[in-house]
Automatic annotation (TrEMBL):
This is Uncharacterized protein. It comes from the Bacteria. Keywords: Membrane, Transmembrane, Transmembrane helix. The chain crosses the membrane at residues 59-79. It comes from Paractinoplanes abujensis.
Length: 289
């Protein structure tokens, strides 16, 4: 399991790597949360080549004037000239890159994964969104969730899910290729036809197996998110009811009483949260690849 996971999603693919992702074109922002870093493509600036040329021309005028002043002061002419050229070139390159659509390079390091199939990409994007919901509940669950092992379990779940989805997109292509093989004019009991049918069955079995494994991870993520969110909402509602009871008691001039006995319910929610995280850790145990 990688100690860190870098995730990037552009308009062509989803890439994951234990190492920092590199952009082929465009720009992106990095958002780190625990051991997961999401690299989010930035919207192209839309600045055209003509606009960049005009900006470079406007920028060159004060640089030429400054170079002349430095030359008059005795500075060798090539030094301010070189600095001016470097400035214009740097600004030009940054503007050109900002105008491009952000696309990631395919990771070549061990542990890198690439998803290109729309269905697999959508499933992983949903898992990443659920993982954000899970992380948002952690500050409100002190004493219940240890952030470090929870972070490792969540990162491991995303990495394992990506590995399964990569297998599924390969199986999808394989199944399409197998289904495209024509058996016309070939006897049904031909060894080739029988071998083809066996491979189709094997591919179908692997498809079902990986689907079940991926669904288990997705369900575990959903349960962890819902358990934490439900606990926090119920605690917030209980606190609102307690404050309202105190206000009403003060207005009525009698000792306040709780609006509802929330202790047992909160205890149940606490157990549900702990169980959900335990199940998430069991789905992706340490040392599994």
């Amino acid at each position: 399991m990688p100690s860190e996971l870098h995730i990037g999603m552009d308009d062509e693919k989803t890439v994951l790597s234990p190492y920092a992702l590199r952009l082929r074109t465009g720009r992106a922002r990095r958002h780190r949360s625990g051991s997961v870093t999401e690299v989010v493509p930035m919207t192209p600036s839309g600045v055209t080549r003509e606009a960049r040329v005009a900006f470079a021309a406007r920028l060159s005028l004060p640089l030429i004037f400054a170079s002349a002043l430095f030359f008059a002061a005795g500075v060798p002419w090539w030094l301010p000239f070189a600095a001016s050229v470097a400035t214009v070139t740097t600004v030009w390159r940054r503007q050109a890159r900002a105008a491009q659509i952000a696309r990631f390079e395919r990771p070549v390091a061990e542990g890198g994964r690439v998803l290109v199939s729309p269905k697999e990409r959508a499933a992983f994007a949903r898992a990443v969104a659920v993982s954000r919901r899970i992380r948002r509940t952690w500050p409100g669950l002190p004493g219940m969730i240890d952030p470090e092992p929870a972070d490792r379990s969540l990162t491991r779940a995303l990495d394992d899910l990506a590995a399964l989805l990569v297998r599924r997109q390969e199986l999808r292509r394989l199944q399409a290729g197998l289904e495209g093989v024509s058996e016309q004019d070939v006897p049904a009991d031909s060894p080739a036809v029988l071998a083809l049918a066996a491979q189709r069955d094997r591919a179908l079995d692997l498809w079902r197996e990986t689907g079940e494994q991926a669904d288990r991870i997705l369900r575990s993520l959903d349960r962890a998110a819902l358990a934490g969110e439900s606990f926090l909402r119920e605690r917030e509602i209980g606190e609102a009811a307690r404050r309202a009871g105190l206000v009403l008691a003060g207005l009525a001039g009698v000792p306040g009483t709780p609006a509802a006995e929330s202790g047992p319910e909160l205890a149940d929610r606490t157990a549900a949260v702990i169980t959900a995280y335990r199940e998430l850790a069991e789905q992706c145990p340490e040392g599994r690849h």
